[in-house]
Design brief:
Helix content: 25-40%
CATH superfamily of the largest domain: K homology (KH) domain
CATH topology of the largest domain: GMP Synthetase, Chain A, domain 3
Number of helices: 4
Shape: elongated
CATH class of the largest domain: Alpha Beta
Order of helices and strands: EEEHHEEHHE
Number of strands: 6
Oligomer: single chain
Strand order of the largest sheet: 1-2-3
Strand content: 35-45%
Distance between the termini: 35 Å
Radius of gyration: 17 Å
Number of domains: 2
Largest sheet: 3 strands, antiparallel
Length: about 140
Amino acid sequence: MATRKATARWNGTLKEGNGVMKYGEVEGPFTFASRFQEGKGTNPEELVGAAHSGCFSMYLAAIMSADNFKPKRVQTTASVHLGEEDGPKITSIDLDCEAEVPGLDADKFAQYAQTAKEKCPISRLFAGTKINLSAKLIG
């Protein structure tokens, strides 16, 4: 299997400092305000959300494809909730998925989505975090 890398650099104190996170060719600034308030820039939780939504979508497409269903698209939004439990903690992640898969019925789609929620690598990484799923078959 492949090894992937990302980097982050932080300069200064927590509240007055700033940093840059980089993965692949993408680079994004982050600050205290972008993480804990509504400031400009990105934050680790957005990157977790991007990773989780991408992983879930790919895993769901893979398991449907393995049963000869051909998804036209799988679109997932991950909302990552940062809360307080003995310090800052990701308390839950909401996955909201829509998929267009010709010939697939809603009940079978719900089973596939539940399997993807439980087994995609990022979901497994967050096994101690509550992951909520809303999955809708469209088209």
